[in-house]
Specification:
- By secondary structure, the protein is of the alpha+beta class.
- It has 2 domains: about 140 residues, FAS1 domain, CATH 2.30.180.10; about 80 residues, no CATH class.
- It contains 12 helices and 7 strands.
- Strands 2-1-7-6-5-4-3 form a 7-stranded mixed β-sheet.
- A hairpin with a 2-residue loop joins strand 5 and strand 6.
- The longest helix has 21 residues.
- It starts with 17 loop residues before the first helix and ends with a helix.
Length: about 250
């Protein structure tokens, strides 16, 4: 006989620091591997608030082939730290605060510029596809491209994706968008397709008539509220533009 009821131990509360939230999301494995490789994981689990601009796995996958593998080499540790530090801002910075301020200084001292371009929330050219994911020690804003400094972009291994031809940009956007769409994030997929079309419409090598058609397609898609329908409309537009450019 006992004088009290034995209860099972309380289940541990899931950690809600930035690293844990990113890990549970499932689409930041490359970012977390890079952070771990240079010993910066503590920065994402400490009590010190930080705002992280988190590139998805698809964003890292869009870099030129071999870039990630090159950066993960021990001799490039300082360079990788500099790149990762460009994706973090001291303190807790909401999307609204960032947009109102217009600029922010990253952990590595680099400058980050926030603005709205063609209806998309941008930071240094990358589209912010999800904002204000709150964590115990800061906030995460999801971005669709890896932010590189001007010196990084000048190298062959870290050339900007926007230096590709329009056809190559469309192929890259579809390669990025399809797995994201299939995973259920139709809004992010639509953003990837839209960004690609906007970029192509500004390319000097694209005929003005084709550019006008692209802008009309983007504008029409922008009026579609359903993420799924918008993604399909933009994908159809990309296919149409690809077919048109292939004939030129």
């Amino acid at each position: 006989m006992i004088d009290s009821v034995i209860l099972p131990p309380k289940a541990a509360e899931p950690s809600n620091d930035i690293a844990s939230v990113a890990k549970r999301a499932g689409n930041f494995t490359t970012l977390l591997a890079a952070v771990d490789a240079v010993g910066l994981t503590d920065a994402l689990t400490s009590d010190q608030n930080v705002t992280v601009l988190a590139p998805t796995d698809a964003a890292f996958g869009a870099l030129p082939k071999g870039t990630v593998e090159e950066l993960l080499k021990s001799e490039n540790r300082d360079k990788l730290i500099a790149i990762l530090s460009l994706h973090a801002i001291p303190g807790n910075v909401s999307a609204g605060d960032a947009l109102n301020a217009g600029t922010a200084k990253a952990l590595n001292g680099g400058s980050l510029k926030f603005d709205i371009v063609d209806g998309l929330f941008k930071v240094n050219g990358a589209t912010i596809v999800k904002t204000d994911i709150k964590c115990d020690n800061g906030v995460i804003h999801v971005i669709d491209a890896v932010i590189l400094s001007s010196s990084d972009r000048s190298g062959d291994k870290t050339a900007s994706i926007n230096e590709k031809t329009p056809l190559e940009q469309i192929e890259a956007a579809i390669d990025r968008g399809v797995p994201i769409f299939n995973s259920g994030d139709h809004g992010e997929c639509a953003s990837i397709y839209q960004e690609c079309m906007v970029s192509i419409s500004k390319a000097s090598c694209v005929d003005s008539r084709v550019s006008m058609v692209i802008k009309q397609l983007v504008q029409k898609a922008g009026g579609i509220e359903c993420d799924t329908e918008r993604a399909w409309a933009l994908r159809s537009g990309l296919d149409h533009v690809y077919s048109t450019l292939s004939k030129n």
